[in-house]
Design the sequence.
């Protein structure tokens, strides 16, 4: 297949990868362009220019100018533009899905599903046109005291590569609805989806300059965006390392950040659980997007009494999954996003085995010529995993299901909470008492009980501890994109004319 066909003239991506600044496609770059590599084939897809600090400054300066008018428009007026973006997303779902699949590697069918997810973020943002935007507080006679929300101004959004379209929408939709302008820096691995989405927003009638896309490395282009004097808030999804660097740079300017970082979700199976459901979901929650989701099942804790039954069922579900070309309609497992991520996952599996884990399935590239190129990793099962192994502590972000056993409630809660991360957790039990106690005791921002994800746009996706600060989605996620203004209005007889 000719993957370059994603660059057809007249398509959302047009013929040339470019930054989008003030509605104009710009190919000026500083330094070496960044190659985009198809993770399924290892073939070169495009070279993307790197935005200099001057180009970032151009984007932010335009954003400041355009935001003033956008921020004054009514919520319903802004919602109309967002509604048109929502409609165009539906109309172009396959075209954008194709771009997502080619640069990120997920099965095309899932990539089209991701565009549906992107629409959901717009849908929720549109619903905020009717929100309460402030409070009137009891005060003295002849005085009105109001506290209302207003836009921040210009938002800087720094995106990861695992959901290049959905996370674009997750940040752009609430930022725009709240009256802000936004400058997006996509991941180095997946910049093409953001370019196509920016073009779609332009076609939907979003004023030029309100949304710009600048491409380049995090520590250069990303840092220029974070450090720009007129950027008033940073929202970022990515690694804990990147989040720390961004937060310390933002601290210099004293601007707020919302960081959604790595995870180490425990998947806990109590002995009274529906074991078949738990086994099926353990595999699904692990292999979704080839294991590259911050909420993935990173470490499965199964009670020792049900270990054998659980493992037999998990093995059957895992064995039924075979990697396939992302454009095969039956594909459910694609490659890892980059050779670097493949090497990291391989090294984590090898280290776990060296430290005493049992490799029950996979552990390497799947057999077959079709998987010789690209970043393919076979569905992998590690058993006899222990608390002191590296794989129990660090985020794997790959299709590696690690299973360990426990014997008591207190033990498993203590072990699950001992990770530095605190994003998602999974609980499987038929006992209301166990579930409710565990919901109280687990130190994670988001817990799934007797069901797998994903999260919903009206929830609150918030990481505790090393998983982040702030969060996305729902009314609490929307809050990150506003600040508050207090007014004391005197209207007694002695005031005014
Ligand atoms: P990363 O944090 O390096 O990159 C994420 C984004 O942040 C990219 O756009 C990058 O350019 C930018 N960035 C990085 N450092 C920056 C800085 N100092 N200033 C400004 N921007 C900066 O993550 P990665 O290298 O793409 O992935 C590494 C690991 O992070 C993965 O293996 C995985 O464990 C985790 N990760 C988590 C998620 C998630 O959904 N929470 C997403 C992607 C990666």
Sequence:
């Amino acid at each position: 297949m000719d993957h370059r066909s994603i660059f057809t003239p007249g398509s959302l991506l047009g013929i040339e990868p470019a930054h989008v600044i003030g509605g104009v496609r710009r190919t000026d770059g500083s330094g070496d362009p960044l190659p985009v590599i198809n993770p399924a084939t290892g073939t070169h897809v495009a070279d993307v220019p790197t935005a200099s600090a001057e180009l970032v400054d151009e984007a932010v300066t335009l954003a400041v100018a355009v935001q003033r008018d956008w921020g004054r428009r009514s919520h319903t007026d802004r919602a109309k533009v967002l509604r048109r973006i929502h409609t165009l997303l539906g109309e172009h779902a396959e075209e954008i899905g194709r771009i997502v699949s080619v640069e990120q590697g997920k099965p095309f069918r899932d990539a089209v599903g991701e565009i549906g997810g992107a629409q959901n973020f717009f849908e929720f943002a549109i619903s905020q046109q009717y929100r309460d935007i402030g409070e009137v507080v009891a005060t003295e006679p002849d005085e009105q005291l109001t506290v209302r929300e207003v836009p921040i101004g210009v938002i800087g959004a720094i995106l990861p590569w695992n959901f290049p379209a959905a996370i674009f929408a997750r940040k752009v939709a609430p930022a725009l609805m709240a009256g802000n302008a936004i400058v997006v820096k996509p991941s180095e691995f997946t910049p093409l989806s953001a370019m196509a989405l920016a073009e779609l927003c332009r076609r939907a009638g979003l004023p030029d300059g309100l949304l710009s896309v600048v491409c380049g490395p995090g520590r250069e282009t990303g840092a220029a965006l974070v450090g720009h004097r007129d950027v008033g808030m940073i929202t970022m999804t990515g690694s804990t390392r990147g989040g720390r660097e961004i937060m310390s740079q933002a601290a210099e300017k004293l601007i707020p950040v919302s960081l959604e970082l790595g995870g180490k979700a425990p998947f806990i199976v109590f002995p009274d659980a529906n074991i078949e459901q738990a086994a099926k979901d353990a595999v699904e929650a692990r292999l979704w997007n080839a294991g590259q989701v911050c909420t993935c099942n990173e470490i499965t804790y199964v009670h020792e009494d049900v270990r054998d039954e659980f493992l037999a069922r998990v093995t059957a579900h895992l064995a039924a999954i075979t990697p396939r070309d992302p454009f095969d309609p039956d594909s459910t497992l694609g490659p890892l996003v980059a050779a670097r991520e493949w090497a990291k996952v391989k090294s984590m599996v090898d280290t776990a085995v060296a430290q005493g884990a049992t490799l029950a399935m996979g552990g390497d590239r799947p057999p077959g010529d079709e998987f010789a190129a690209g970043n393919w990793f076979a569905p992998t099962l590690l058993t006899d995993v222990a608390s002191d192994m590296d794989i129990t502590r660090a985020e794997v972000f790959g299709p590696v299901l690690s299973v360990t056993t426990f014997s008591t409630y207190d033990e498993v809660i203590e072990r699950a909470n001992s990770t530095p991360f605190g994003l998602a957790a999974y609980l499987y039990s038929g006992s209301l008492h166990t579930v409710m106690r565990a919901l109280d005791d687990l130190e994670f921002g988001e817990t799934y009980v007797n069901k797998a994800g994903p999260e919903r746009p009206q929830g609150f996706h918030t990481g505790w501890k090393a998983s982040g600060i702030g969060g996305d989605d729902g009314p609490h996620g929307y809050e990150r994109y506003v600040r508050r203004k207090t007014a004391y209005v005197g209207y007694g007889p002695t005031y005014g004319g």
Q: What stands out?
A: The chain has two domains: 3-261+467-484, 265-449. Residues 158-162, 185, 187-188, 217-219, 222-223, 226, 236-239, 242, 245-246, 260-262, 294, 341, 395, 397 surround nicotinamide-adenine-dinucleotide (CB under 6 Å). Residues 53-72 form the longest helix (20 residues).
